[in-house]
Amino acid sequence: MNLTRQIEIVLAFIATIAILVGLGLAIAREPARIVAAEQEILDTQIDEATALYAEQCSVCHGIAGEGIGSNPALNSEALRGTDFDTLFKTIARGRFNTAMPAWALEEGGPFSDYQVSELVALVQHGDWTAVQDYTVNAGLAPLVPFSAEPDPVVLGEVGLLPEGESLQRGIITYSSECVACHGADGLGTALAPALNDPIVRDQTPDDIARTIELGVPGTLMAGWQGALDTETIDDLVTLITRWDEIPIGAIPAPDVPIAVTEESLALGESLYLANCARCHGDDGQGTGRIPALNVTSFLLETSDAAIQQIVTRGVPDTPMPAWGDRMTDAEIQSIVGFIRSWEDTAPDVATPSGRGRQGGGGGPPWQQQEASTIESVQDETSDWRNTMLIASLLVVSITLIAAGLHTFRRHSRADHNTDASDG
Ligand code: HEC
Ligand code: HEC
Ligand code: HEC
Question: For tag attachment on the chain, is the N or C end more exposed, with fewer CB atoms within 10 Å?
Fold first, then answer.
């Protein structure tokens, strides 16, 4: 056995060992790979459920699952530990005799069984801070809390109208059960249409009562048959059919701050600079006869809901445009959040200017934050993939070297033979 033959055998041996080690490694890593794959699926489910939650559930259960009014919190340890079937049934079928609607297609709701199971995954494993950020960035954070206080003075006046007591009860029920979606004074919100509207008043009282009792399947409008008795629903119908007699301001928009995130503030700032600064000044100090917004008196007296209203509808017969048809609710809310961020540092008296930012340090806290350094984390998956890659490269190169040696040896042997015959 000559030397090359020996080298060949050793190389083949090494190659076999390398293959075995690679296989062993792959087998050893398999459970970790399965766990990683499962985690990936769960993450996707939770992402999708977050969007569904923001659109359909946050209005009742809060932007971070914290619960609103009599609607329970979903971000509790108790619910995280609740079994899949119980949660699935609750979400799919709703809770009879409560405001919790049924969500599964089979029950007349908008969601497939798979979507319901994604929502269960969210309740069991979700990150509620991420849900809050998503809801705010999507402009879906409910502006109004679940209930409002009707104005007692207006309520007294309403009592003097014919059937005044029924109207009063209607206003009180509306303020606690319906205002979150249908808005202050029944004027509607992004979530639900206005009820204080001639088109709604045109319907027969029976039709309106039926909508309230049975709801509108596939929408946020739940049926109230179980939750409210017939007399209470009649009071609501009286209110809706005679809303034109109720003074505006009876059911106010409650003063709830717009929720903000770093992202929404950054968007608000860029939209402000692009659309508002030329009139209100880069620093909100006003220009010429256009009022300052970055000034204590304005910010203390004007709620977020009011600013949103002004920006959306504009100020008729003045240069202040209505932005509602040019921007989405989310964009307008981000501007309102940005204007509100001035409050802590706002001067008592504005110094109207031309344009130009007052330079220097400071700025709102969210601008001062260091850009978070992104650590490159090598996870399990890429780790074992690297091992496999190196192992297979090793095998391939060893095989190539062996093959090369083999051919070389044959050649030299053939040359040798030719030389011999020549001689
Ligand atoms: C119209 C308001 C409303 C909406 C919208 C709503 N819920 Fe509910 N939800 C309720 C109420 C009220 C309850 C409590 C029912 C009861 O008293 O048993 C509830 C209960 C629950 C529970 C059980 C909580 C517990 O402690 O047992 C879960 C889970 C739940 N909701 C999930 C959801 C999901 C997911 C969505 C969106 C797809 C949603 N809800 C939308 C009002 C609502
Ligand atoms: C969770 C949000 C939500 C709540 C709370 C809610 N609604 Fe609705 N409501 C809706 C939506 C959304 C629609 C529109 C449904 C559709 O697309 O047809 C609607 C539609 C209606 C309509 C039909 C309006 C029309 O244009 O004909 C009436 C009437 C109504 N709601 C009354 C009420 C009353 C009364 C209450 C309180 C007891 C109430 N709603 C509570 C979301 C809500
Ligand atoms: C063409 C000039 C112009 C532009 C652009 C403009 N505004 Fe105005 N804005 C005005 C004027 C003028 C008023 C005062 C209206 C009045 O007389 O009540 C005003 C009033 C306001 C008020 C109420 C101030 C108060 O003291 O009551 C707010 C809030 C406001 N603007 C926000 C905005 C925002 C946000 C933008 C950008 C999306 C914007 N404006 C763009 C001219 C402008």
Answer: C
Q: What is the pLDDT of residues 191-250, one digit of tens each?
A: 689 999 999 999 999 999 999 998 887 677 777 887 789 999 999 999 999 999 999 889
The rounded Å distance from CA 7 to ligand 3 centre is 86
- Which whole-number Å values give the CA distances from 236 to 178, 182, 189, 251, 329, in the listed order? 10, 13, 18, 14, 28
pLDDT digits (tens, 9 = 90+) for 115-130: 999 999 999 999 999 9
Q: List where CATH 1.10.760.10 sits in the chain.
A: 38-137, 152-245, 262-357
**Ligand 2 and 172: CB distance under 6 A:** no
Q: Which residue is closest in CA terms to ligand 2's atom 22? A: 211
Distance CA 291, CA 281 (A): 9
CA of 316 to the centre of ligand 3 (A): 11
DSSP letter at 108 equals T
Answer whether 109's CB lies under 8 Å from 218's CB. Answer: yes
pTM of the model: 0.54
Give the position, in ligand 1's atom list, of the atom nearest the Cα of 99: 12
Q: If you measure from the C-alpha of residue 182 to the centroid of ligand 2, how many angstroms do you get, rounded to a whole number?
A: 7
Looking at domain 262-357, which of 3.30.70.270, 3.20.20.70, 1.10.760.10, 3.30.830.10 is its CATH number?
1.10.760.10
For 348-384, the pLDDT digits (tens) are 999 987 543 333 333 332 332 332 222 233 344 445 5
CATH value of 38-137 in 3.40.50.1980, 1.25.40.10, 3.40.190.10, 1.10.760.10: 1.10.760.10
**176: Cβ contacts below 8 Å, ≥ 6 apart:** 69, 146, 147
